Amino acid sequence: MTGFTLLDHTSEIGFEATGTTLDTAFAHAGQALFETMTDIDDLSAEDDLTFSVESENLEALLFDYVDELIYIAQAKQFLIRSFDITISETADGYRLDGTGYGEPIREDLRLQEVKAPTYSDIVVEETGEGWTLRMFLDV
Amino acid sequence: MSDDPVLNQISDHEWELPQSGEMNVPARVFASDEILSHIKDDKTLQQAQDITHFPGIHRYACILPDAHQGYGMPVGGVVALDTETGGISPGAIGYDINCGVRVMRTNLTYEDIKGKEQQLANILFQKVPTGLGKGSVAGAVSTDDIDDICTQGVKWALENDYAVEEDLLHCEDEGVRDNANPDHISDKAKDRARHQVGSLGSGNHFMEVQRVADIYDEETADQFGLEEDQIVVMIHCGSRGLGHQVCTDFLRSIEKQHRDLVDALPSKELAYAPAGSELEQQYYEAMNAAINFAWVNRQLIMHKTRECFERIFDRDWEEMGMELLYDVAHNIGKKEMHDINGEEREVYVHRKGATRAFPAGHDKIPRAYRDVGQPVLLPGSMGTSSYILKGTETAMDRTFGSSAHGAGRTMSRTQAKNDYWGEDVQKDLQRQQIYVKAQSGSTIAEEAPGVYKDVDEVVRVTDAAGIGDKVARMHPVVNIKG
Fold first, then answer.
1. How far is A103 from chain B (nearest CA, A)?
2. What number is the ipTM of this complex?
3. Please, what's the b/e burial string for B396-423 (b: 16 or more CB within 10 A of its CB; e: otherwise)?
4. Which end of chain A is more exposed for a tag (fewer CB within 10 A), N or C?
5. A52 φ/ψ angles, rounded to the nearest 5 degrees
6. Which one of A119, A135, A139 would you mutate to disrupt binding with B, by most B Cβ within 10 Å of its Cβ?
7. Across the interface, do A110 and B252 touch by the CB < 8 Å criterion?
8. What's the DSSP call for residue A41?
9. B71 and A136: CB-CB below 8 Å?
10. How far is A109 from chain B (nearest CA, A)?
């Protein structure tokens, strides 16, 4: 199991990511996002980059996390193949600390852009087997 | 809402979704039976009902013939919210602020470019940045440049030799929105934009060399400078990462500052900054800045296109008559005066996947077109026709001066990739003398002509409903995509 699948939407695209812990589910969600941009198997994981986001609840955390990753791809021109994610509770909600392993954008890669995360049919739920995250993206 | 909403037919191409429950007004759907069957296939009608929950919404929510399910609000939708009692909703304008279309005419004919299509496709694809991380016409620019672009719009392009004076005259709002303040745009948004000034992006954005196949209205076509067999260039893209980030940022700010209002809506995607709030003013000024950015983006792509044609045809672009016909947004929010039950009121007209379509005589359209009406630019998919229509009094009366914006998808990207193989689509199109070049075969499969609604039917209904009169039809010759 890869930990994520891409989902259908008439005009856009989405993903569902699962993990035995919230941290791994978010890590798989990050991979799903980059899979919508390119084939992540084509990426090396030689470089790394750290980031963090803070949000008031878990849905907002997923939204802000994906927003941050889109920023990393477009502004920092860095693509991520895999993630280490640690989520902790704060006084105001949640904090996510992440490390992304990947490489700067290469000329030879064929890349699709993602415009933004959306709240449309967003899911962050604990199941008997762990966590399931679902999100649709504006592409 | 029930699974099978009741629609009352008002006329041949107009239906009403009556007001019920928490709807503040009804919704109107402009469609034929065929189009209605597509609209009923997804969540468009449910979303049509949802958007009537906005406070201060006037008359009805409009669902245009190309409508399909979007996020929160359908793509192909128009709502007018009162500037005193309503507000402004980033999601009802769209993530890609001022996504829009421009058409540049030429004095070349199809005969002039026959045999050079592949060459043209190659050079345009090489010179016009597409996709992610493939650079931009302006190269990496400074944050100060971004601020200037956001404030000055196409005047920035003029000062930096990417435009001539006439380009401004033929752009919606002459290429610059006032009340544009880049101080309300985050550093994150500006960082995303630094590498993207003059770039197509991906998804459904494209540039297409087209030949004029049919003229339906000689007098208007003459005013627009169009004739049969003429070559024109259509450019479809928006405000890139800057606009997307502005929408995302304000969606979150509104959610945090006006949680009670957002919780009362059917979808968070419909979050709005209420009239009189600080966020209303800040979003309006940030959106105007993003609108300016998008116009500069399309201008720079047009500039690069002129250079490509100069290289292929070994002539100055001026000699080839490469003048901007018009540039119009189809994701935009604007303060406009409209007749609301006999009273002129200022409203925020939200056009999401909808083109402004002002009639002859309106002072907001270029002088050159004021006698006939505003050009409405309606792109099809890469293998099908695109159209130019003109704005009408009926549009002013029925749809807050708005018309359709394109064909509208009927199939998901994943389904498209299952049903089509990019190289087969490309070869099939080439047999029809349509040359396509894209970042990958999957892009071509995702955008295959079969995944879109029948654009001819969208235009037929738009024309028949009177919300845009047909002027010309163009057929694709060369198409490049991200």
1. 13
2. 0.94
3. bebbbbbbbbbbbbbbbbeebbeebebe
4. N
5. -150, 150
6. A119
7. no
8. G
9. yes
10. 9
Q: End-to-end distance of chain A based on CA atoms, in angstroms?
A: 26
Q: What is the number of residues in chain B?
A: 482
Q: Is B367 exposed, middle or buried (0-12, 13-18, 19+ CB in 10 A)?
A: exposed
> How far A22 CA lies from chain B's nearest CA (Å)?
22
Q: What is the CA A54 to chain-centroid distance, rounded?
A: 15
Q: Which of B42, B201, B251 sits opposite A10 (nearest CB)?
A: B42
Closest alpha carbon within chain B to A5: B414
pLDDT tens string B215-225 = 999 999 999 99
Over the stretch B310-328, which tens digit does the pLDDT of each residue have? 999 999 999 999 999 999 9
Contact state of A67 with B415 under an 8 Å Cβ cutoff: no
- For residue B320, give both structure tokens: 């080839």
Backbone CA torsion sign across A110, A112, A113, A119? negative
Q: Which of B258, B151, B241 is nearest to B187 (CA)?
A: B241
Tokens representing B59? 């008359």
Cβ of B268 and A138 within 8 Å? no
Is B414 in Cβ contact with A13 (below 8 Å)?
A: yes
Phi, psi for residue B90 in degrees, rounded to 5: -55, -40
pLDDT in tens, B454-472: 899 999 999 999 999 999 9
Q: Determine the straight-line distance between the first and last CA of chain B, rounded to whole angstroms.
A: 38
Whole-structure pTM value: 0.96
